[in-house]
Amino acid sequence: MILKSIDILNFKNIGSATLEFSEGVNCLLGMNGMGKSNLLDAIHVLSMTRPMTGGTDGSLIKHGEEMMLVKGVFHTEAGSNDTISCGISKGKRKSLKRNGKEYGKFSEHIGNYPIVVVTPEDSRLITGGGEERRKLIDMVISQVNREYLSSLIKYGRALENRNKMLRAGVKDTILYESIEAIMIESAAFIHSMRKEWLETLAPMVEEIYGRLSGARESISLTYRSQLNGQNMQEVLKSRREKDQILGFTSGGIHRDDIEAWLDGYNLRSIGSQGQLKTFIVSLRLAIFRYLKEKKGVVPLLLLDDIFDKLDSDRVENIMKEVSAAGEFRQIFITDTNRQHLDDILAGIKGSKALINVENGEFTPIEQY
Hints:
alpha/beta, globular, 6-stranded antiparallel beta sheet, about 25% strand
């Protein structure tokens, strides 16, 4: 899959821009705050319908403007050119269209144009709470399995209803069981998919981390879930009285988590900044491979400021990884250091481009 072009209007600090992209590597050069990451964010919105680092839809509108619009043309594996547009106006519902036709549900779009992003904010996947890691799991699996996304939505609604009942002091067992039946069915499927996902992904992360670290240390992943040892019905029933006191649902797949281990020790506790960054990049590249294998489509790869906090050996290993022939297709890389970008482009034999970014404006550097 290729993003051929993009048109942007009033998106963050980008007033207006029209860009055509290389089918290979696109490097964005500029100082911090100039708009490099905002361009990647616009691409992410076209693929996933939302900002890549969270935030509200309204935060995407350029300050002082009333609306924003992003439109891109994707060349698909099937050979078609699909125009995707996303528009947001203050006080109105977000608009998402494919070839001029409005989607009935945004969930119908997820997974059609897969994408993998590495950002500086990914450090929250290690330092943040379990919610950050669950969001990652759900985002990835939802791109390959529509039933999974549907189950998440059903579970989330039922969970919200159960919590309302708990806060209201409802004691009726039949009412609880009617809501819990939905949670039980959805949770079983979600748990099985998450377990299968991590069993597939973990060896990929270990392999890639070994290359990026120069085999100096090893990484491993484990899936922590209350459903590993019991089913959802048992979890809910055993905790109902406690939950009535607490006023919320204390057990279930909404408490799942992933733990990363560095040479057998918790990565969060002992990992250096370079080791944490190496793990994040390895995790994202493994997700790229997972999506590619499951969907039969090569995702877009967006690498935002990935070389920060890494020693020269790890930087070199990452450059070798992303320059590997056949593994990737279209890549977008941002950096403030031209030498990093020149080194990457020098190792690329195919299509490539270097774009200078300043104050939300984009200028191709003719050398490439």
